[in-house]
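Design request, tokens follow.
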């Protein structure tokens, strides 16, 4: 198969982690007889520097013509004080502009890294494998926002249509069917009208999936349950802002945010894949960042956008073997001697 991938390294460590991911994809391509073509594009702070805009039209248009998008990370203190412009606007523009309404954020605890988990062993005994399915193109992120005329009050509106909720819940249901068939819908239905719509919609959608066990949690309770007993969760389906917050919490429970990939999907097979972590400007350019989250995002791309199951499995297995063999970047090294970003790329390729 030939696939055209739009690559957006972005800022900070983005370039380094993307470079290793491209090497791994090429190695897998060679092994399985695929050809991946890459078109490198600018978005984020680097695009502000070169064009004045976080998301140049050419970047969005080229992404639309590609089979998928692989993104490093955007942002950094350099661009924190430009009035009205932020590198993060590139992310929202890509999500909205590409119609990527479902964001899949797995929180997996690697057995090899369980010392990094901040929870007591008795709480995580047996491992952790949660999939957060976050709505990504609606809610308060895309609602009306502004200030009153005198500037003394402001507003950000949470608005959802049944259509937006339903397609997200369906996506969550489909994913749950391939996992442990348990979905927890997280909302704030004791307060918010939109949350009550989520519950109404869930009743309708899950009626079509009788094998799925569905439960509902208020977001405050869910955030507590995540640290009290995270093993009760399989798939969490939730709104844009609740998913943003809970996915950070869940990532920290695994102890290694440098390991977590994500996929953002729309209607067809098209998707955008990026690590959960940010651009980490403080360690950029030093060959110490952990490339595994991005490499695993590449694996998700093969699985969800290209239907390359065996190829995706191969990458994930190679990552596991590299960890088994003791290879660790600084963020997951514990007391051991760390290797660099490029050397981690080498290690994964060695075990493919
Ligand atoms: C994330 C990030 C983004 C979000 C920011 C950088 C806009 O926190 O992907 O979780 O809030 O969605
Ligand atoms: Mg976030």
């Amino acid at each position: 198969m030939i696939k055209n991938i739009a690559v957006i390294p972005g800022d900070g460590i983005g370039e380094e982690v993307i470079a290793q991911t491209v090497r791994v994809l090429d190695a897998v391509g060679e092994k399985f007889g695929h050809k991946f073509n890459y078109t490198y594009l600018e978005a984020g702070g680097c695009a502000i520097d070169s064009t004045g805009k976080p998301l140049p039209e050419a970047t969005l248009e080229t992404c639309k013509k590609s089979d998928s998008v692989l993104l490093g990370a955007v942002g950094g203190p350099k661009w924190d004080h430009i009035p009205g412009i932020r590198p993060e606007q590139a992310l929202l523009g890509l999500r909205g502009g590409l119609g990527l309404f479902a964001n899949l954020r797995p929180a997996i605890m690697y057995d090899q890294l369980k010392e990094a988990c901040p929870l007591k062993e008795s709480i995580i005994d047996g491992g952790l494998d949660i999939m957060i399915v976050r709505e990504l193109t609606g809610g308060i992120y895309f609602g009306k926002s502004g200030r009153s005329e005198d500037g003394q009050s402001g507003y950000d509106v949470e608005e959802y249509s049944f259509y937006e909720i339903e397609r997200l819940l369906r996506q969550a249901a489909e994913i749950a069917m391939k996992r442990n068939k348990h979905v927890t819908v997280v909302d704030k239905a004791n307060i918010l009208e939109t949350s009550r719509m989520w519950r109404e919609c869930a009743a309708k959608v899950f009626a079509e999936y009788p094998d799925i066990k569905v439960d509902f949690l208020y977001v405050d309770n869910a955030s507590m349950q995540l640290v009290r007993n995270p093993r009760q969760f399989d798939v969490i389906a939730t709104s844009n802002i609740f998913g943003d917050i809970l996915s950070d919490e869940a990532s920290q429970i695994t102890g290694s945010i440098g390991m977590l990939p994500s996929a953002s999907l729309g209607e067809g097979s098209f998707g955008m894949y990026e690590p959960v972590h940010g651009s980490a400007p403080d360690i950029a350019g030093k060959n110490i960042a952990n490339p595994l989250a991005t490499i695993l995002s590449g694996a998700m791309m093969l699985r969800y956008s290209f239907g390359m199951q065996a190829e995706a499995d191969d990458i994930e297995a190679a990552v596991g073997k590299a960890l088994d063999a003791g290879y660790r970047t600084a963020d997951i090294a514990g007391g051991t001697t760390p290797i660099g970003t490029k050397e981690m790329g080498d290690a994964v390729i060695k075990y493919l």
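Comment from the thread starter after seeing the answer: thanks! The two ends are 19 Å apart (CA to CA).
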